[in-house]
């Protein structure tokens, strides 16, 4: 059974808290746009697909928090202190990826228009439209990928040439990055593999579905198959280590795996199977999901059925037993994709 208790326990009237100590929410860690954007997607999906009405108040909370982070220039701030003020971390860290995630969440939410109060949908549409000028300035490949996914969801519900041309603009930039880096058996968009890698090829599949341009489809498959080759060994998934990541033409570290990467792979494999109908993607999806259930190098369960939370990481000899927002929501998103 699907358990959203930990996600709800991590959520306050204002937003979802970032970290936990064990399974106890750590209010001192404050809030992030990243976590609340992901939570909006996961609980909207629970509500829309599972008719779980208990999610409704939380969905409104996450939507309001995204609105709180939206700035007048159409960009978002990511880090919010427990006292509701924006923290200085917003000046020190690149925020493009969290901006992309917010747009992905808004687009996903809009795609379920009719299932939620109209006022909420209109709010989400107002916010996403406000971001259009900012979208054209994005440089980070991941942020572009998140935005393509969000715009695709929006476009499917409310088709328009404007959204389609934004999707095309971003997809062309990704193709450009790919051409600059694709050499010597390194079929990727950057000179390194970091976190949440699967969303890059996956977004190009969405661009293909919106535009029909086969270059997006071909590049999506080529780059995704390259990534799968790097992350699946035998009957296990082993995602890129967060200790130094994986640099082109170098050996990466073996340990330091996070739920976000496994969940992203599960979700992307589902998208690839939907387009290509290749059973190998389906088999890999099951293998990847089973990482949460013990199919990993420590043979330890990463999901916590007692709390509905998910442990924050798999290290060389131990599990990080904290159950933060990112892990719990990523697990739920992966689990929903398995159905």
UniProtKB/TrEMBL annotation:
GO MF entries: glycosyltransferase activity
Coiled-coil features, chain-numbered ranges: none
SUPFAM superfamilies assigned to the protein according to its UniProt record, in alphabetical order: Six-hairpin glycosidases
Keyword Glycosyltransferase attached: yes
InterPro entries per UniProt: 6-hairpin_glycosidase_sf (IPR008928)
Gene3D superfamilies given in the database record: 1.50.10.20
Alphabetical keyword list: Glycosyltransferase, Transferase
Gene Ontology BP term (one): carbohydrate metabolic process
Name of the protein this chain belongs to: Mannosyltransferase
């Amino acid at each position: 059974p699907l358990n959203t208790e930990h996600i709800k326990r991590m959520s306050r009237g204002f937003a979802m808290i970032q970290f936990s100590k064990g399974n106890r929410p750590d209010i001192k860690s404050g809030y992030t746009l990243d976590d609340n954007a992901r939570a909006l997607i996961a609980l909207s999906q629970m509500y829309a697909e599972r008719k779980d009405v208990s999610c409704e108040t939380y969905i409104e909370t996450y939507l309001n928090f995204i609105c709180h982070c939206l700035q007048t220039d159409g960009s978002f701030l990511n880090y919010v202190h427990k006292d509701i003020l924006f923290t200085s971390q917003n000046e020190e860290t690149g925020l493009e990826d969290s901006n992309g995630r917010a747009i992905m969440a808004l687009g996903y939410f809009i795609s379920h228009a009719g299932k939620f109060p109209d006022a909420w949908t209109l709010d989400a549409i107002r916010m996403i439209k406000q971001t259009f000028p900012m979208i054209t300035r994005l440089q980070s490949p991941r942020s572009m990928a998140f935005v393509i996914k969000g715009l695709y969801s929006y476009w499917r519900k409310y088709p328009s040439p404007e959204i389609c041309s934004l999707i095309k603009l971003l997809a062309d930039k990704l193709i450009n990055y790919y051409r600059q880096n694709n050499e010597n058996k390194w079929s990727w968009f950057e000179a390194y593999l970091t976190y949440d890698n699967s969303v890059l090829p996956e977004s190009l599949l969405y661009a293909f579905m919106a535009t029909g341009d086969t270059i997006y489809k071909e590049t999506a498959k080529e780059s995704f198959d390259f990534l799968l080759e790097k992350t699946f060994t035998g009957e296990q998934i082993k995602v890129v280590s967060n200790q130094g990541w994986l640099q082109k033409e170098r050996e990466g570290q073996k340990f330091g795996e996070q739920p976000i990467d496994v969940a992203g792979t599960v979700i992307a494999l589902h998208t690839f199977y939907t387009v290509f109908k290749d059973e190998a993607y389906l088999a890999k999806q099951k293998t990847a999901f089973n990482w949460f259930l013990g199919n990993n190098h420590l043979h330890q369960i990463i999901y916590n059925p007692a709390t509905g939370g998910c442990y924050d990481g798999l290290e060389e000899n131990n599990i990080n037993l904290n159950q933060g927002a990112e892990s719990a929501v990523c697990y739920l998103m992966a689990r929903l994709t398995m159905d």
